[in-house]
Amino acid sequence: MVAREFFKSLGVSLWFMVLTFPLVAVRVNTIENTIQWRWANLAIVGVGAFVLSAVWRWALVRRETMLANAASGAGERSVRVWDSPVVTRTLGAALLVVFMGIPWLVSTYQTNILISFFLYVMLGIGLNIVVGVAGLLFLGYAAFYAIGAYAYALLNHYFGWGFWTVLPMGGVLAAVAGVLLAFPVLRLRGDYLAIVTLGFGEIVRLVLENWSDLTGGPSGISNIDRPGFFGQEMTVAGTNIYIYYIVFVAVLVTFVVAERLKDSRVGRALQALREDEIACEAMGIDRVGVKLMAFGLGTAWAGFAGVIFAAKTTFINPASFTFFESAIILSIVVLGGMGSNWGVILGAAFLVLLPEYMRAFSEYRMILFAAAMVLMMVFRPQGMIPARSKQYRIVDRELELSGE
Amino acid sequence: MDVQYFFELFLSGLTRGSIYALIAIGYTMVYGIIELINFAHGEIYMIGAFTGLIVAGILGTMGFPLPAILVLAVLVSMIYCAGYGYTIEKIAYKPLRQAGRLSPLISAIGMSLFLQNYVILVQTSDFVPFPSLIPEFAFLEPIAHIFASSDFLIVVVSAVLMAGLTLFIKYTKMGKAMRATAQNRKMAMLLGIDADRVISVTFIIGSALAAVGGVLIASHVGMVNFAIGFLAGIKAFTAAVLGGIGSLPGAMLGGLFLGLSESFGAGYISSDYEDVFAFSLLVIFLIFRPSGIMGKAKVEKV
Amino acid sequence: MKGKISSFVVAVCLAFAGAASADTIKIGVAGAHTGDLASYGLPTVNAAKIVAKQVNDKGGINGKQIELVVQDDQCKPELATNVATKLVSDGAKVVIGHICSGATKAALPIYTEAKVMVISPSATNPELTQSGQYPTFFRTIASDDAQAKLGVDFAVGKLGAKKIAVLHDKGDYGKGYAEFAKKFIEEGGKAQVVLFEGITPGAVDYSAVVQKIRQSGADTVMFGGYHPEASKLVSQIKKKRIDVHFISDDGVKDDTFIKVAGKDAEGVYASGPKDVSGLALNKEAIEAHKAMFGTDPGAFFDSAYAAMLAAVNAVAKAGSTDFDAMAKVMRSDLVETPVGTIKFDTRGDAEGVGFSMYQVQNGKYVEMK
C-alpha cells in the first residue's frame, strides 16, 4: 500500500519535472544567444510535486469520505463556534472597541493600511451579495469601484462638489449602473454572465483610459479634495484619522445591512434562486426584480468605497481598476467563504493585511492566492468561514406529544 | 474608397482572425463537452509562446537552420501545451465534475492567475524578444508589402489545422465519441464511451492548437510576456461566442469575423477603441444572440 | 532580496537613530524600491547615500549631519500618500523623489501643505511644474514636452517632414508625448498631422495601424511610448516595406531596443538626456558608486545625484530648512552637478538640463549634433 502510494507520487513528480522542464529550468536570451540552465529549480519542482501529490490524494480520499458521511447524515449539523451568537457578539464587540481606539495608538502609516483593509472588506461584502448570496459570478466588480471613484474625482474637479455631497451619489450611481447592466444580462446563464461582466469591467476601464478630455486619460485626476469636517482645516495626519473613522463606520453599516439582507425576504428569495430558478418562479418569486435588487445592492457598496478611495489618495488613474483588482476582490470572497460576511473579513485580512506585513513574500503573493482559489474550490468550496443559512425551529405542541 | 487599402486591411484582418480562430477552437470544444469556460486557455497560448521561445533559443545556439527551428519549436510547444492542458484538467476541473456551475468557473480563474504568476516567477515579468523564425518566402516578394510571409504562414497553417480537425471530428472513432459526449454525456457513457478520456483528448487537442497560435504569433510580432494570454484569450472567447459557442465551424467563422471587424474598425475608424469594440461585440452578442451566428438556440429542460 | 532587506534594515535603523539625535537634517528618499519598477527607484537611493556620506564625512551641513529616511512607494499612488505622510510625520524637510509621475502627483498635496521641498530625479509629467499647483516641487530632469518639442523641431527642421503620423501606446507617458508633439506640429504650421492613433500594447498584430500609416502618406512617424511596442512597430513597418522616418522618445532610447529590433532599428531617431558622460563630476559620481556598491549605477542616477547636491546646497546656503529660504537659493544659485551646471526656474524646472536627438547607426545610438 505504502509502496504503491510511493510509486504514484514518484510518477507524478516525474511528470511534473518533465512538464515544467523548459519553463522552470531554462531561461534563454535570443539576443545575446545565451542559455541559462537552472537545474536546482527542477529539483524543487520534483520534491514539491512528490509531497504535494501525496497530500493531494490523501485530501481527495478524505473529501470522498466526508461527502459520503454527509450523504448518510452522520456528520450533519455539527455545532460550530461561529454559530453561537454569544461568541460572535463578544468577538464583534471586542473588535469594535479595538478598532475604535487603534488610530490613536498607531502611526499614520498603520492607520493607512487599515483604511485599505476596510475598503477591501467593504468591496468584499458588496461583491458577496452578488456572488455569495445570489450565486451570480461577477468578474467586473472593479468597474463599479471605478465609477464611485471617478464620480467623486470628476464632480470635485469640474464643479468643486464636496465629499459628503458625492458620497451618497457615488453609491447611487454605481447601483444604477449595476441595475442597468443587470437588466439585459439577467436572462444569461451563470458562465455567460461572468463573461459579460468581465467585458463590461474592461470597457469601463478602457473608456476611462481613452477619453482623455474628460477623465485625463491614463494620467488620471489629481488634487482631489479630502473630506471636509464642518469647514475645519485639518492636518494630513488628522484627515487620515478622520477618513479612518468614516471608512470604519461605512464598513459597520455595510456589514449590518448585508447581514440583515441575508435573512430578509429578498435575501431568502436570492438564496432560493441560486439553488433553483425554475422552481422559484413556479413558487411565484419575481425573478427579475429580485435579481436586479441584488445587483443594485451589491454594486452600491463598490460606489461608496470608490468615493472614499478617491478622497483618501487624492489622485486616481485607470490603472487602479483593472481586471486584476476584480480578481483580488473575488478571491477575498471565495477564500473567506461565499455568502459569509465574517469570512470576507478574514479573507480581506489574508489578502490585504498579510502581504503588507510580509513584504518579503510579495513575489509569491499572487501565485499562492491563485493556488488557494483552485484548492478551495476542490476541497472546501464553502470557504474558510462557511455561510450558514438561518435555521427556523417550529415548536409544535401536538407533534411533540404525539411523536416522541 | 481605395480598393487597395481595403484589400490590405482585409488581409491583416485575415491574419488576426486565423489566430483568434485557432485559440477559439480550444474554448469551443471544451465548452461543447463539459460546458465550462476554460479561463486558463489563454494562458496555455502564452505558455506555448514561451516554450517555443525556449526551444528556439536552445536550437539557435546549436546552429540549426531556421525552418527546422520553426518546425521543432512548434512541435515541442504543441506537445508541452498538450501536457499542460491535460494536467490542468486533472487538477482543477476533474474533481469538480459533480459540483455546481460556480465552482469550476472560479477554479478556472484561479488556474489562469496561477499560470500567469507561474511564468512571472520562473521566467520574467518583462517583455522578452522573440526571434523571427519565419523565413521570407521568395514567391511572396511582389506582394510582401501587403502580405508578408509570416501572415501567409499563419493563415495557411490555421486553415490546414482546422481542416484536419474537422476531418478528425467527422470521421475518426474518437471524433464520433466527442460528438456523442457533447450531445449527451450520460447517454454516451451508457453506450460505453469513456467520457473522462474524451474530455482529456479535448483538452489536449485544444491546447496543442493554442500552442501553434502562440509560437506563430510570437514570431510574427517578435515579443512575448506573461500577460499576452489574457487579451488573446478574451478575444478568442469573443470569437467563439460570435460563432456560437460549442460549434467548431462557428469558432472559425467567429474568429475571422472578429479579426476582420477589428482590422476594418482600426483602419476606417480608429484603433484607440479597438478593444472596447471587441468587448462591446461580445456583450451585445451575449445579450441579444447568445447562440451566436451559427449556434442553435437551446431550450433548458426541466 | 538581500538588497531589499538590507535597505529596509537601514531605513529602520535610520528611523531609530532619528529619534535619538534630534539635531540632524532629515532628507526623505521616496520611490519604487520593490516591485516591477524597483530598477528605476533604487539608483536614487544609492545616489542619496553617496552624497550623504560625502557631506557627513566632511562634517555635515553647517555642522549638522544628514540623515536619510528611505521609503518605498512601489510607484503606486495609494502607497505614495502613505509614504508622504510618513516622511512628513518623521520630520523630513527635503524629499528626493518620487520616481513616477503618478505617485508624485498623489504625494505632492501632502508635501505642499507641510511646506516640504521635493526634488524629483525622474518625474517628467509636464503638469507637475506647469500647472503651478505644486510650489514646493523641483526636478532635475526635463519635462516631456521638451522632448516632444525637440522631436518636432528635428522632424520639421532637419528632416523636412511635411506629413507626420503621431502614434502612442495609450499610456501616461506615451500619450503625453504624442499630444504635445501634435500641438507643436500644428502650432509650427510647416507640417501637418496626418494620423493620430493609439496602439494597444500586447495586441496580437499591428498591421492594420501600419497599413494606415501607408494610407495616410506620412513621411515621418513620431511614436510616444516604450521600446517593446516601438520595436514591434518598426519591424512591421519594415516588413510592410514602408519608407518613413521613425522618431521616438526617451523610452525608446534604450539599448534593448536596438538589440530587439536588430537591423530594423538602423536609422531610427530617439531623444534622450544630453550626453553628459564627459563631465568631470559625472565620472566622479560613477566612480563613487563603484567604490561604494561595486556596480555601475542604474537609471536616473545622475539626476538623483544632482537633486541631492542641489538639496544640500540649498540647505547650506539658506542656513535652515525653512522652505522659502531654500527655494530662494534653489532659484538663484548655480550648482555643479553630474548633469551640468544647473539652477531652477520659478516653476521648478531645471535650467541647463535638456535632451538631445540620437540616431541608431551601426547598432549604436549616436548623438546628433
Can you characterise this structure?
The complex is a heterotrimer of chains A (404), B (302) and C (369). Chain A is mainly alpha-helical. In chain A, 74% of the residues lie in helices and 2% in strands. Chain A contains 16 helices and two strands. In chain A, strands 1-2 form a two-stranded antiparallel sheet. In chain A, helix 4 runs parallel beside helix 9, helix 4 packs antiparallel against helix 14 and helix 13 (323-336) crosses helix 14 (341-357). Chain B has helices spanning 3-34, 41-61, 66-93, 102-122, 149-171, 173-183, 185-190, 195-221, 228-243, 248-269, 274-288; strands at residues 128-129, 223-224. In chain B, helix 1 runs parallel beside helix 5 (149-171), helix 1 packs antiparallel against helix 8 and helix 2 packs parallel to helix 4 (102-122). Chain B is globular and about 60 Å long. The mean pLDDT of chain B is 85. Chain C folds into two domains: 2-141 and 278-351, 3-Layer(aba) Sandwich (Rossmann fold), CATH 3.40.50.2300; 145-267, Rossmann fold (3-Layer(aba) Sandwich). Chain C is built from 13 helices and 15 strands. Chain C has helices spanning 2-20, 38-57, 77-90, 101-114, 127-130, 144-158, 172-188, 207-216, 227-239, 255-261, 280-293, 301-318, 323-332; strands at residues 24-31, 65-72, 94-96, 117-120, 137-139, 163-168, 192-198, 220-224, 245-248, 269-273, 335-337, 340-344, 350-351, 355-361, 364-367. In chain C, helix 9 runs parallel beside helix 10 (255-261). Chain C starts with a helix and ends with a strand. Chains B and C meet through helix 1, helix 8, helix 9 and helix 10 of B and helix 8 and helix 9 of C.
